[in-house]
Amino acid sequence: MDRSKVIVIPCDSYDEEKVYSALKKGLLELGGLKSIVKPEEKILVKPNLLSAAIPDKAVTTHPSVLKAVYRLLSECGCENVKSGDSPGHGSCEGAMKLLGLNDDTMYGAKLTPMSENVHVDFSDGITCKEFDFCKEVVESDAIINVCKMKTHALERITGAVKNVYGFVCGYRKAAGHVKFPNDTVFARMLADIHRCTHPRLHIMDGIIAMEGNGPGAGTPTPMNVTLISEDPVALDTVYCYLINLDPELVPTNSQGCRMGIGTDKEDEIEIILCDPDESNTGTSGHIINKNELFEKYGNADFDVGREKPKNTFLMKYSGFMTKLARRPVIDKEKCVKCGICVDHCPVPGKAVEFKNGKSSPPVYDYKKCIRCYCCQEMCPQHAIRPVRGPFRRH
Q1: Residue 336's Cα: distance from chain center in Å?
Q2: Closest CA to 219 of 281, 149, 287, 160
Q3: Is 353 exposed, middle or buried (0-12, 13-18, 19+ CB in 10 A)?
Q4: Would you call 221 exposed, middle or buried from its count of C-beta atoms within 10 A (0-12, 13-18, 19+)?
Q5: Nearest residue to 65 via CA among 42, 49, 50, 78
Q6: Are 84 and 113 in contact (CB under 8 A)?
């Protein structure tokens, strides 16, 4: 049986030429970019643009990685390339501007706003049979998913599988959290997005990753690698190897594997370490196992949720999971009462509100809270983090 290849390319800086050489070399291990996309196709390059943030914050895919992808597509003769995301807060244009990306710096690719909705019926869906996608997703022939190596409050990590949630247009993403209110069913919905859209290629920016209170308020930390694969689950699994996290604890891995979008099984994954400093002609990668990979580039102290589920059946198949999960808590010293957490709460009737007026921080009603962590993701002051412990009101 053919194994899913995951290419690991060491890269210790965001120097544009260095990143370009690393991705070019890595792609040769998959047969080159021309084996994945055709020049005449309409191609969408989808970064992680959670919110407008400068590159050093590690909130978004770094512009050097994106420029390398645009440049490689241009060299392949691809002339119909668009790039964008549907951020949870703010606009795609605003996020790209902070990254220094515009039509003049994207090697012929065009920035696209990802703001127009198209309803898509998906009769083959296992968990979700309809989506409200951005128009560009529906119009594309091929999608290249350029994700960021980060932690995530709901799914433990966000990588190739999770990044496709940006295909869902604007505020409709919030409704998805209500409809799919725990980590397992949300992961199954993400797997259905992959089954519906079939992204061709997945590239992970892990040169500087985010640990801790991700995906928007964590701590940048160097991992010094980029990862490439045609299998999103295998790519995220190798990410788990690098941070010494059991891949089966990540719902997007376990459910993605069960739903057929990739594999998280060690014996079904081939890890190829590629040295970009060698000649740029031909391939030079060699197969290594996960222990060798971790020894060279792993980080055992990477701050990520490692606790095991306490009740597997209930956590997978009932709303009981939300009663056991961590809950978002506001740091009153950091909160500036901007109300973004209230605005982004997807729960009807709101699970977080200004109950004592806007002179005090918002207050949670944990009986309503579905632990989707939209509030935590969108807080610009990094004043919200998920915590465990005794039941708390605020």
Answers
A1: 28
A2: 149
A3: middle
A4: middle
A5: 49
A6: yes
Q: Indicate the helix (H) or strand (E) that contains 145.
A: strand 142-152
Selection from 218, 233, 133 nearest residue 187 by Cα: 233
Tokens, residue 264 = 């998280």
> H or E segment at 133?
strand 130-134
Q: Residue 376 is encoded by which pair of tokens?
A: 């935590």
- Four-CA torsion 30, 35, 36, 42, nearest 10 degrees: 160
Cβ within 8 Å of residue 127, ≥6 positions away: 180, 185, 188, 189, 191, 192
CA separation (Å) from 94 to 51, 146, 193, 374? 9, 18, 26, 20
Domains of the chain: 4-297 (3.40.50.11440), 326-387 (3.30.70.20)
In order along the chain (394 residues), what is the average pLDDT of each group of 10 residues?
A: 94 98 97 97 98 96 98 98 92 96 96 96 98 98 98 97 96 90 96 98 98 97 98 99 98 98 98 78 82 98 90 50 74 96 93 94 95 92 83 40
Q: How many helices (H) and strands (E) does the chain have?
A: 14, 16
CA distance 293 to 279: 22
Q: What residues pair up with 156 in beta bridges, in sequence order?
A: 152
Tell me the C-alpha distance between 1 and 122, whole Å: 30
Which pair of tokens denotes residue 347?
Answer: 């729960």
| Dihedral sign of CA atoms 388, 390, 393, 394 in order | negative
Instruction: State the pTM of this model.
Output: 0.92
Rounded alpha-carbon distances, angstroms, from residue 208 to 114, 163, 344, 378:
26, 17, 28, 21
Q: Where are the beta strands (DSSP E) in 162-243?
A: 201-211, 219-229
Residue from 33, 260, 243, 4 nearest 146 by CA: 33
Side chain identity at 143, as an amino acid letter? I
Bridge partners of residue 151, in order along the sequence:
157
